Q: What sequence folds into this?
Protein backbone atom coordinates (compact mmCIF):
# COMPACT_ATOMS: atom_id res chain seq x y z
CA UNK A 1 0.00 0.00 0.00
CA UNK A 2 1.37 3.41 -0.94
CA UNK A 3 0.07 6.13 1.36
CA UNK A 4 0.87 9.66 2.39
CA UNK A 5 2.96 9.63 5.57
CA UNK A 6 0.22 11.26 7.66
CA UNK A 7 -2.63 9.06 6.37
CA UNK A 8 -4.63 7.76 9.37
CA UNK A 9 -4.62 4.22 7.90
CA UNK A 10 -0.83 3.84 8.13
CA UNK A 11 -0.81 2.75 11.77
CA UNK A 12 -3.74 0.36 11.41
CA UNK A 13 -2.26 -1.32 8.33
CA UNK A 14 1.17 -1.66 9.91
CA UNK A 15 -0.43 -3.12 13.06
CA UNK A 16 -1.96 -5.80 10.83
CA UNK A 17 1.46 -6.55 9.35
CA UNK A 18 0.61 -5.07 5.97
CA UNK A 19 3.49 -3.57 3.98
CA UNK A 20 3.14 0.21 3.73
CA UNK A 21 5.30 2.57 1.68
CA UNK A 22 4.94 6.12 2.99
CA UNK A 23 5.39 9.28 0.95
CA UNK A 24 5.69 12.89 2.09
CA UNK A 25 3.20 13.91 -0.60
CA UNK A 26 0.07 12.36 -2.09
CA UNK A 27 0.81 9.11 -3.98
CA UNK A 28 -0.31 10.30 -7.38
CA UNK A 29 0.40 8.41 -10.59
CA UNK A 30 2.94 11.11 -11.46
CA UNK A 31 4.76 10.72 -8.16
CA UNK A 32 4.79 6.92 -8.42
CA UNK A 33 6.20 7.07 -11.97
CA UNK A 34 9.00 9.32 -10.70
CA UNK A 35 9.74 7.00 -7.76
CA UNK A 36 10.01 3.99 -10.05
CA UNK A 37 12.19 5.93 -12.49
CA UNK A 38 14.53 7.08 -9.72
CA UNK A 39 14.78 3.59 -8.19
CA UNK A 40 15.61 2.01 -11.57
CA UNK A 41 18.16 4.73 -12.31
CA UNK A 42 19.85 4.20 -8.91
CA UNK A 43 20.16 0.49 -9.72
CA UNK A 44 21.98 1.41 -12.92
CA UNK A 45 19.19 0.26 -15.20
CA UNK A 46 18.97 1.99 -18.59
CA UNK A 47 15.57 3.51 -17.89
CA UNK A 48 14.33 6.13 -20.35
CA UNK A 49 10.79 6.69 -19.09
CA UNK A 50 8.23 5.15 -16.76
CA UNK A 51 4.47 5.18 -17.28
CA UNK A 52 1.98 4.30 -14.56
CA UNK A 53 -1.63 3.60 -15.47
CA UNK A 54 -4.53 4.63 -13.22
CA UNK A 55 -7.22 3.33 -15.59
CA UNK A 56 -7.17 1.90 -19.13
CA UNK A 57 -7.34 5.47 -20.45
CA UNK A 58 -5.46 7.53 -17.83
CA UNK A 59 -1.70 7.40 -17.28
CA UNK A 60 1.24 9.47 -16.10
CA UNK A 61 4.72 9.34 -17.58
CA UNK A 62 8.05 10.49 -16.17
CA UNK A 63 11.21 10.79 -18.24
CA UNK A 64 14.60 12.35 -17.59
CA UNK A 65 14.36 14.67 -20.56
A:
Amino acid sequence: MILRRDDPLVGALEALGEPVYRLDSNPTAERIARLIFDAAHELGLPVVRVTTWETPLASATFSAS
Observations:
- The chain has one domain: 2-63.
- The first helix runs from residue 9 to 15.
- Strands lie at 2-4, 21-23, 49-53, 59-63.
